[in-house]
Backbone:
C-alpha cells in the first residue's frame, strides 16, 4: 500500500522528511526516496508516513498542515 501511495502522491512525499533515520543513514532526501528502492518495504515508519500523507492529501489537507501532522506523529521515532 505504501508503494502505491508513493505512486499516487509523489509530489506530497517529496516534501516530507522521513523520521526512521534513513535521511541520515542512507542519504535519503525525503520520504519519497524510501520507495525508490526496497528500503520502504521493510520500514513501518516509512510506510505509515506515506499512507497517512496520501490520506490527508486526498482529504484536502494543505501540505503545510500535512507536514505538521506527520512531524507531530513521527518525529519521536527519529534516531
Residues:
Amino acid at each position: 500500500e505504501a508503494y502505491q501511495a508513493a505512486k499516487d502522491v509523489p509530489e506530497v512525499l517529496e516534501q516530507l522528511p522521513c523520521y526512521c533515520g534513513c535521511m541520515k543513514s542512507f542519504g535519503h532526501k525525503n520520504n519519497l526516496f524510501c520507495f525508490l528502492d526496497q528500503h520502504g518495504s521493510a520500514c513501518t515508519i516509512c510506510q505509515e508516513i506515506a499512507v497517512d500523507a496520501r490520506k490527508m492529501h486526498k482529504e484536502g489537507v494543505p501540505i503545510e498542515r500535512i507536514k505538521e501532522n506527520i512531524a507531530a506523529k513521527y518525529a519521536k521515532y527519529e534516531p
